Amino acid sequence: MASNPAYGFRLCSVGKNIIKRSKPKNYPAKKVELGQTIVRVIDENSKILVLHYNALDAKDWTDFRYAMKQEQATIKVFPNKLTCKFLSDTRYRNMTPLFRTDTCLAYGNDFDLKKILKILNTNDKVQLIGGKFDDTLFNRHQVIDYSKLPTLEQARAELVSILQQPSQALSGLLQTNQSQLSMLLQGYVDQQQEKGETDPPPQAE
After folding, report:
1. Is pLDDT of 2 > 60?
2. Measured CA angle at 120 (ends 119, 123), to 5 deg
3. Coil, helix or strand at residue 68
4. Has keyword tRNA processing (predicted)?
5. 144: phi > 0 → left, psi -120 to 50 → alpha, else beta; which?
6. Nearest-CA neighbor of 42 among 130, 134, 114?
7. Which of 111, 126, 145, 196 could form a disulfide with 72 if both were Cys (CB 3.0 to 4.6 A apart)?
8. How many CA atoms lie within 13 A of 97 on its CB side?
9. Which of 73-77, 82-86, 199-203 has the lowest mean pLDDT?
């Protein structure tokens, strides 16, 4: 019988030399919807952290989710195989190597990375694997280095401070010169007044 290109071939699980035909895997509607949700979460959030968790019980999960939520980060567990499958056809396919163990995502747009890393450092059951910031993929060490950079607000404040320094110096110089000029004028006026008081009145002719 001729082979059908719509089917793939694989060896049976016990390793015998018997070739069986297997249909390509078709995901049910619920899994397709979940896969689309995974892509949407990564696409709509500028800050994504991939975390490895180990031996977290129900209370650990509750405490961990609450602590992260306080810092505006959402925690979600997605199936690794499904995640890799749906990311493989997107621009985020380079993230798939991060999903090789028990993983969860921490995501958001407004969380402070330094505060998030402090939470992770105090939890020995959760470790950082890597992350995505905007459209750039980071490994664990790069995420840590990235957290040491100033925030956009801090960078703007520093830039404004630098730009204001020349004008502040000029303003200070003008104020100093103005004060000195006022003192000189006042001294001259006082001197003239004293001179007028000590000089004899003019004699009538």
Report:
1. no
2. 95
3. helix
4. no
5. alpha
6. 134
7. 111
8. 6
9. 199-203
CB neighbour list of residue 3: distance below 8 Å, 6 or more residues apart = 9
Q: What are the C-alpha distances in Å from 31 to residues 2, 34, 81, 91, 93?
A: 33, 5, 11, 20, 18
How do beta strands 74-76 and 19-22 pair? unpaired
β strands within the chain, DSSP E? 8-11, 19-22, 47-53, 74-76, 103-108, 126-133, 136-139
Options 3.40.50.1000, 3.30.390.50, 3.60.140.10, 3.30.70.1730; CATH for 27-149 is 3.30.70.1730
Summarised one tens digit per residue, pLDDT across range 152-197 is 676 677 667 666 666 666 566 566 666 666 666 676 677 767 666 5
- Taking the C-alpha atoms of residue 125 and residue 53, their distance in angstroms, rounded to an integer, is 6
| Domain range summary for the chain, segments of one domain joined by + | 27-149, 150-185
Model confidence at 14: pLDDT above 50: no
pTM for this structure? 0.65
- Would you call 101 helix, strand, or coil by DSSP? coil
